[in-house]
Design a protein that fits this description.
5-stranded mixed barrel; single chain; 7 strands; disordered N terminus; OB fold (Dihydrolipoamide Acetyltransferase, E2P); mainly beta
Length: about 140
């Protein structure tokens, strides 16, 4: 009887702690989730990292293939898309908070002024644009 009661408590508590929401692609890992506005600082000098992020979708640019933009704070945007083209996301995803798992990468400008190696120049602010290749996405309710 105690075993049955213990099994019931464990079973019901797993539903209480489970996060609910619509899943696109595979279910993202919710263990260590980084806020989207902290992603740039978390990456440091690394050009690519695998992680899970939480952020607000600004707009869906293309539904087929899951192309969208995430608010990265301070006027910055993270361009995101699914690694598999067969994923389709709804256009009304804009304004929703999501958890996305995938690979974050920095896109550097092609012109890095190598011919001016002795001179110090300032690159444009968008030369370090962040992109995110999504393997799984969950919409938080």
């Amino acid at each position: 009887m105690k075993t049955l009661l213990l099994a019931f408590v464990i079973f019901s508590s797993s539903f209480a702690f489970a996060q609910k929401g619509k899943i696109y692609g595979s279910r993202p890992s919710t263990g260590e989730v980084i806020e989207a506005q902290n992603l740039d600082a978390f990456m440091g000098t690394k050009p690519r990292i695998s992680t899970s992020i939480r952020g607000v979708v600004i707009k869906v640019t293309k539904t087929k293939g899951g192309w969208f933009e995430i608010n990265a704070g301070h006027g910055k945007v993270i361009a995101a898309h699914f690694s598999k083209y067969d994923v389709t996301i709804p256009t009304n995803l804009a304004g929703h908070t999501i958890i996305a798992e995938g690979i974050a990468a920095r896109q550097f400008a092609a012109d890095d002024s190598q011919h001016l190696a002795g001179q110090k120049t300032q690159h444009a602010a968008n030369s370090k644009e962040l992109t995110f290749e999504v393997t799984g996405l969950m919409v938080e309710k």
